TrEMBL record:
It comes from the Bacteria. GO terms for cellular component: periplasmic space. This is Tol-Pal system protein TolB. Part of the Tol-Pal system, which plays a role in outer membrane invagination during cell division and is important for maintaining outer membrane integrity. It comes from Szabonella alba. Residues 1-26 form the signal peptide. The Tol-Pal system is composed of five core proteins: the inner membrane proteins TolA, TolQ and TolR, the periplasmic protein TolB and the outer membrane protein Pal. They form a network linking the inner and outer membranes and the peptidoglycan layer. Keywords: Cell cycle, Cell division, Periplasm, Signal. Residues 31-137 form the TolB N-terminal domain.
Length: 444
């Protein structure tokens, strides 16, 4: 499957399916997971294999149901009841739900679906039921696309279920760009790759002839910024995702550019520029090519990240003598320090919600991924290991992905994810070693 096909927009129709009922709010409280910082008992749910409405849809019906179940269970908020425990069997999409059978096995949510396939088009429809109230939650939805996009449709079903039960936006129908690594530590080969958020559908964007670092998606997911050593020195490039064509940005003789990130409008780019031994933060207008300097300090200033409203930039600097986090207006100006704990802070990135900033912290020989408010308050460390670094936010601001590297001469980097509460630490499946993840927005 080509990258263009993978990112081809689906023909999506939010249709009220025949026989759908209103949302279930007649019980004492609707089916809902209240996400707090306390311990959460995962909500039990059931996903029978979707009904294949014709012979060509059989494999897709089974596979889509499995991906939906894996998406939800992978959050740590849901627990799937295995099919071996099911009493009822769903043989028709329009058959009435035997609520008593599902209550008997303690299912609180039931997801049923059907798939039809014809030529280069498949159609997926689903419904979500609140078992204890005995009613359907919201209207059914229908998604249509090519057979190659079946995983995307499964992710969209899971996103809809997740949103209805948690009240938060989903994040399953998204992609992650990262650096695929191979070889020993002293001779690593690195190339850019992109995959579904769960590690499926990996596609390589560059070869391993030169070192690449720090890829970052644009707000619309159609471009990727990254740093490459193809010229012998670090320089920023921008890649068009559909064509996989790249061009250098801001080519200035005698400089090195790195750590780029898009602004929320997709037009402005902030990055670090080193010249004459001094590293400062600059902004580039990709439309006009005009460049402005945002910091002017003998310190090393790098890793800038915009706030979601585009008004502020968080970055790391050693201007105080140690590596710390600062915030300044997006147009430049006097920065204020926000990190105040013991240790060194780096790689800050603003949450898409705007409420938190994720960062890497090094303290007492350990590395941590943490979050804090934009005023530096409520710092929480979510992980601890030999080397954790480079956080990136899921589109809904609920989950953070990062790089974890093991110790020793044979240590290798891998991608992990963790909930912002610090729960549900999981390794992300990749083909070999991987580092520098960057999450896309939800796909169109």
């Amino acid at each position: 499957m080509t990258l263009m096909k993978a990112l081809r927009p689906l023909l999506i129709a939010a249709l009220a399916l025949f026989g759908a009922t209103a949302p279930a709010f007649t019980q004492s409280g609707p089916l809902r997971i209240e996400i707090t910082e306390g311990v959460i008992e995962p909500l039990p749910f059931a996903v029978p294999d979707f009904v294949a409405e014709n012979g060509a849809a059989a494999d897709h019906a089974r596979n889509i149901a499995r991906v939906v179940a894996a998406d939800l269970a992978g959050t740590g908020l849901f627990r799937e009841i295995p099919s071996s425990a099911h009493i009822s069997r769903v043989s028709s999409f329009d058959a009435p739900v035997a609520y008593g059978d599902w209550r008997a096995i303690n299912a609180q949510a039931l997801i049923t679906g059907a798939v039809s396939a014809s030529g280069d088009r498949i159609v997926v429809k689903f419904r979500l039921f609140d078992i204890f109230s005995g009613q359907q939650m919201g209207e059914g939805l229908q998604f249509a696309g090519t057979p190659q996009s079946w995983r995307r449709m499964a992710h969209k079903v899971a996103d809809a279920v997740y949103s209805r039960i948690t009240g938060e936006g989903g994040y399953f129908d998204s992609r992650v760009v990262f650096v695929s690594e191979a070889g020993p530590k002293n001779a690593r080969q690195k190339r850019l790759a992109v995959m579904d958020y769960d590690g499926a559908n990996v596609q390589y964007l560059t070869d391993s002839s030169s070192i690449v670092l720090a890829p970052r998606f644009s707000p619309t997911g159609d471009r990727i910024l990254y740093t490459s050593y193809v010229s012998g020195f670090p320089r920023i490039y921008v890649m068009d995702v559909a064509s996989v064509q790249s061009r250098a940005l801001d080519e200035q003789p005698g400089t090195m550019t790195f750590a780029p990130r898009f602004g929320p409008d997709g037009r402005m780019v902030v990055f670090s520029l080193e010249q004459g031994g001094n590293t400062d933060i600059y902004m580039l207008d990709t439309s006009s090519g005009s460049r402005s300097r945002l910091t002017n300090s003998p310190a090393i200033e790098t890793a800038p990240s915009f706030s979601p409203d585009g008004r502020q930039i968080v970055f790391e600097s050693d201007r105080s003598g140690t590596q710390q986090l600062y915030i300044m207006p997006a147009g430049g100006g006097e920065p204020r320090r926000i990190s105040n704990g013991a240790g060194r802070y780096g790689t800050p990135v603003w949450s898409p919600r705007g409420d938190l900033i994720a960062f890497t912290k090094q303290h007492q020989g350990r590395f941590h991924i943490g979050v804090m408010r934009s005023d530096g308050s409520e710092e929480r460390l979510l992980t601890s290991s030999f080397l954790d670094e480079g956080p990136t936010w899921a589109p809904n601001g609920r989950v953070i992905m990062f790089t974890r590297e093991t110790a020793g001469e044979g240590g290798q980097p891998a991608l992990f994810s963790v909930d912002i509460s610090g729960r549900n630490l999981r390794r992300v499946t990749t083909e070999g070693s991987a580092s520098d993840p960057a999450w896309s927005p939800l796909l169109p």
